[in-house]
Design brief:
With 82 residues, this protein is mainly α. It is 54% helix and 0% strand. It is built from 4 helices and no strands. It has helices at 22-34, 36-43, 46-52, 58-73. Helix 1 (22-34) crosses helix 2 (36-43). The longest helix has 16 residues, at 58-73. The radius of gyration is 16 Å and the shape is elongated.
């Protein structure tokens, strides 16, 4: 196990992992639950556009997706996305 982005082991190939862009992670958490048409509508919301302008840790993207889906279902208001 290593905490570095890659391991230096003799004769063992490696692939450097980089996290996907925020939009891809958010899409993976939300689009399959609402469908592509609704996903496009959600992407048009100002809080979503603002969220996507920055890089986020995967856990933060997952949490934002949960809140975004709550807003879409009417379980909470859009102010929860700020």
């Amino acid at each position: 196990m290593t905490v570095e982005p890659s391991a230096a082991l003799d004769d063992v190939p490696f692939v450097r992992w980089e996290r996907p862009p925020t939009e891809q992670m958010l899409h993976a958490h939300a689009a399959h639950q609402v469908g592509e048409a609704a996903w496009q509508e959600l992407c048009g919301r100002v809080p979503v556009k603002e969220f996507l302008t920055r890089r986020h840790q995967p856990a933060a993207v997952k949490e934002f997706a949960r809140r975004l889906l709550d807003v879409r279902r009417g379980a909470s208001g859009e102010e929860e996305l700020n």
